[in-house]
């Protein structure tokens, strides 16, 4: 069917299936519907990706074994510029443009090989984002790529969204990403800049865009950002979302909430914003925090702890509602590197029906982790995502049965389970892009794979990478600007006279 350029494209829909009768913020049941993607029942979670893929799991296995509705991606993962070729366009922007939204495979899906039924969420930065030593400016933020920090301008980000056509985009927000709260002066500027950027965003977004916008809600006090929120509500949000609007996708379709504690204020003051799906970008660190945020009315999550727990060799082991016949505090996960699982033929978690648990046993995963075989982390990722999928299924079921049953489950969950994940004792996989670097002065995460022969003293720290031969003097590096005479002096290759 040919698309009329002037017709607003079929916009994302969010149906609220069950909301508590009370007026304050509360847990709710809903369904997110995007043309061409599988419906996402909420509360639910999206997978956290690194450079567009779920760590350790190939796209075909994501389709087969991970029941995830969406993938969160960060543009900073894709746009590094090498110093030698600063003008080179990042490959992601060169994805063939023949893939149209109607084919179900927009460029971002094609480039990252994301299954067609899975929806994509694109944001400027990862969660949690590495704080930048350079501040943001009035028209750009500082992002962390694999070649270091670089500015990302509002216009470059917008054009990336236009080119890549994610299903959901999160506009740029002026965030500090620091542990400490910003001063009130800084907080006000955060709100002002984000406000300016959102005006620019909607000014330049077409109703025919195939991308839904989840507007950022800043991690600052409500009193600091109410003007910005009022603009979102009055100017850019349809009064009754879900009905066809002349704005099409040039409207707020959801909220990306960086601190869910602000939700009660939103519920009080903006009835139309309350009908939108809320995605928490606050990176809750335990299932207890996830449950608390659901009680506040969060619908969707991105959970970076899933990947870090798998990397540490831990298999998640919790359910919702929690088991009723328990004694003592149960751990949230099992450290599969522990020697005691060497001969354990049980599944990673009793009762789990995931691929890893139905085909393999603890002893095998323990062996893989000891041998540092990648399959170990792959099986853990499949299992840990499955545990989360059933955790959210259990939450939705209990909400279906009534608010009271859910609240009872939450109380019991906090009594039955430990408050933190066990610390895995195994060696982590080699650090990659998604294991972001922390502040300067930290020890190197990866041990050198090999060093100078006969040098037993590791502390010498000979930095050797696999691409460099081991010699005392570095090999001459050819200068790309060198001419024939220079090369002769540098002695690159043999000059035949
Ligand atoms: Zn399992």
TrEMBL record:
Keywords: Cytoplasm, Metal-binding, tRNA processing, Zinc. Residues 90-115, 423-497 are annotated as: Disordered. Gene3D superfamilies: Queuine tRNA-ribosyltransferase-like. Belongs to the queuine tRNA-ribosyltransferase family. QTRT2 subfamily. Heterodimer of a catalytic subunit and an accessory subunit. One of its GO terms (biological process) is tRNA modification. GO terms for cellular component: cytoplasm. PANTHER family: QUEUINE TRNA-RIBOSYLTRANSFERASE ACCESSORY SUBUNIT 2. Its cofactor is Zn(2+). This is Queuine tRNA-ribosyltransferase accessory subunit 2. Residues 26-414 form the tRNA-guanine(15) transglycosylase-like domain. One of its GO terms (molecular function) is metal ion binding. Binds 1 zinc ion per subunit. Coiled coil: none annotated. It is found in: Cytoplasm. NCBIfam families: tgt_general. Zn(2+) binds at residues 352, 354, 357, 383. Residues 462-471 have a biased composition (Low complexity). InterPro entries: QTRTD1, Queuine_tRNA-ribosyltrfase, TGT-like_sf, tRNA_ribo_trans-like. Non-catalytic subunit of the queuine tRNA-ribosyltransferase (TGT) that catalyzes the base-exchange of a guanine (G) residue with queuine (Q) at position 34 (anticodon wobble position) in tRNAs with GU(N) anticodons (tRNA-Asp, -Asn, -His and -Tyr), resulting in the hypermodified nucleoside queuosine (7-(((4,5-cis-dihydroxy-2-cyclopenten-1-yl)amino)methyl)-7-deazaguanosine).
């Amino acid at each position: 069917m040919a698309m009329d350029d002037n017709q607003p494209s079929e916009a994302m829909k969010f149906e609220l299936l069950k909301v508590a009768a009370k007026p304050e913020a509360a847990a709710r049941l809903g369904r997110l519907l995007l043309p061409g993607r599988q419906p996402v029942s909420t509360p639910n979670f999206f997978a956290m990706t690194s450079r567009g893929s779920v760590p350790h799991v190939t796209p075909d296995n994501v389709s087969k074994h991970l029941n995830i509705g969406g993938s969160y991606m960060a543009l900073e993962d894709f746009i590094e510029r090498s110093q030698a070729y600063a003008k080179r366009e990042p490959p992601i922007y060169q994805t063939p443009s023949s893939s149209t939204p109607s084919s179900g495979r927009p460029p971002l899906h094609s480039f990252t090989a994301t299954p067609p039924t899975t929806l994509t969420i694109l944001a400027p930065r990862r969660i949690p984002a590495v704080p930048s030593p350079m501040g943001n400016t009035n028209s750009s933020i500082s992002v962390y790529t694999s070649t270091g920090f670089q500015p990302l301008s509002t216009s470059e980000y917008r054009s990336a969204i236009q080119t890549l056509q994610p299903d959901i985009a999160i506009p740029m927000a002026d965030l500090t990403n620091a542990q400490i709260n910003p001063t009130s002066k800084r907080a006000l500027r955060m709100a002002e800049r984000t406000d300016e950027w959102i005006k620019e965003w909607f000014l330049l977004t077409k109703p025919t865009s195939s991308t839904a916008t989840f507007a950022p809600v800043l991690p600052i006090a409500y009193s600091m950002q109410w003007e910005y929120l009022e603009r979102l509500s009055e100017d850019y949000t349809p009064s009754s979302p879900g009905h066809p609007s002349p704005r099409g996708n040039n409207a707020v379709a959801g909220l990306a909430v960086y601190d869910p504690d602000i939700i009660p204020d939103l519920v009080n003051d903006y009835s139309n914003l309350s009908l939108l799906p809320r995605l928490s970008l606050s990176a809750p660190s335990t299932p207890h925090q996830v449950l608390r945020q659901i009680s506040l009315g969060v619908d969707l999550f991105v959970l970076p702890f899933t990947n870090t727990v798998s990397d540490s060799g831990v298999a998640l082991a919790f359910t919702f509602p929690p088991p009723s016949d328990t004694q003592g505090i149960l751990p949230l996960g099992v450290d599969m590197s522990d020697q005691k699982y060497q001969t354990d033929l049980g599944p990673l978690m009793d009762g789990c029906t995931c691929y890893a648990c139905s085909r393999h046993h603890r002893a095998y995963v323990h062996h893989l982790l000891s041998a540092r075989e990648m399959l170990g982390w792959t099986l853990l990722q499949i299992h840990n995502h499955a545990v989360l999928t059933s955790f959210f299924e259990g939450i939705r079921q209990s909400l279906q049965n009534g608010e009271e049953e859910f609240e009872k489950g939450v109380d019991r969950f906090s009594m039955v389970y430990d408050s933190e994940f066990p610390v895995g004792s195994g060696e982590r996989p080699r650090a990659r892009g998604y294991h972001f670097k922390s502040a300067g002065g930290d020890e190197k995460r990866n041990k050198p794979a090999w060093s100078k022969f006969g040098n037993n003293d590791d502390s010498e720290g000979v930095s050797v990478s696999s691409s460099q031969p081991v010699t005392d003097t570095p090999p001459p590096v050819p200068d790309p600007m060198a001419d024939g005479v220079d090369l002769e002096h540098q002695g690159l290759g043999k000059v035949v006279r």
